[in-house]
Protein: Methyltransferase domain-containing protein
Organism: Effusibacillus consociatus
Amino acid sequence: MKIKDIADKLKISPRAIRFYEEKGLLSPIKQEHNQYRTFSEKEVWRLQTIISLREVGMPIGEIKKVLDQIDEGDQDELRYYLELQRAVMFSQWVEMKQIIETTDQMIHLLKQNQLLVLEDIYQLAEGSKRLREIRKNWRDRWNFDRQAVIYDEFVRNDDQSFNVHRNYDEALDLTVKWVSPKAGEFGLDIGTGTGNLAGRFLATGIQIAGIDQSKEMLKQCQRKYPQMETKLGNFLAIPYLDGQFDFVVTSFAFHHLTDEQKQLALEEIRRVLKSHGRICITDLMFEDQQKRIQYVENLKKQGQLNAIRAIEDEYYADRSRLLDWFKQHGYITKQKHINVLLHIVYAVPS
DNA sequence: TTTCTTACA
DNA sequence: TGTAAGCA
């Protein structure tokens, strides 16, 4: 097939096709005598792929990478790239929603009083900007991609004197028990990792999706639970539309967020939850500030410097603040500490 | 006619 | 990527 045939068939311009070739995405054979390009079935397929990926906004450079990897027989990477795209789109969407809300508030202010609102508007803008900053500031400081393969083993053998994974199984089991999902309900596990919590729900026949910001973790999870739906994403931009889930759970993940980010995360969780949706947070935290100080003091006395550093490196929640948030937002809570550090907080809308 | 290359927007 | 020019 010649270039015009392909162009017509795929509804793009011949120029575009040449352009892709120039960028190294295609390499059609050129006829000896007149340099006309000849396209085989394979090239058509390739072009279709390019067009599809362009359609979802992937830049040429990225498409080249993906294509190269597919050539090497690597289908997984395409899936990953698409998931990544989706996750990025979702964070933009969440941000966009935020901006629209702020705009609405400004409009509202202007409608109400004509004068002296400039300051209020400025305040709104500042607040909006700050939210964006908080969202942007999330990054994986722990390199979960690298931990993925050994994670499960690590959890089992975490036998350091300061063992944050103590009572791991017990806590996860109890989480399932507290949520006690009914048949037909759909849940979400945020920071699902290798799927240890989500797997427990699946085992009882409950549908649950898992999100994680680490693609390697998701690969492990997928390997363990092939039937589970997983997506790339994080607490601050959950890659799902509003009102999708009956319950949201999360274990050993919430402490990777700063206090400010925790607030946003809770709002995000509420967004993807149905109106009666419940939340269960199983994580390392302190009952309150007092307990935290006490705990650190104790470690100091015992000379457990590593443990102190570990605690300071994470953002273990202040449980009392968490409970306050739930109360303010109309939830009834139930909580329990499995050990000094490990707590479960379960919240149901009243 | 059709495609190609090159240059420029 | 679109448009245009000059060629084969």
User: Anything to note?
Assistant: Residues 13, 15-16, 19, 34-35 of chain A lie near DNA strand C (CB under 10 Å from a C1').
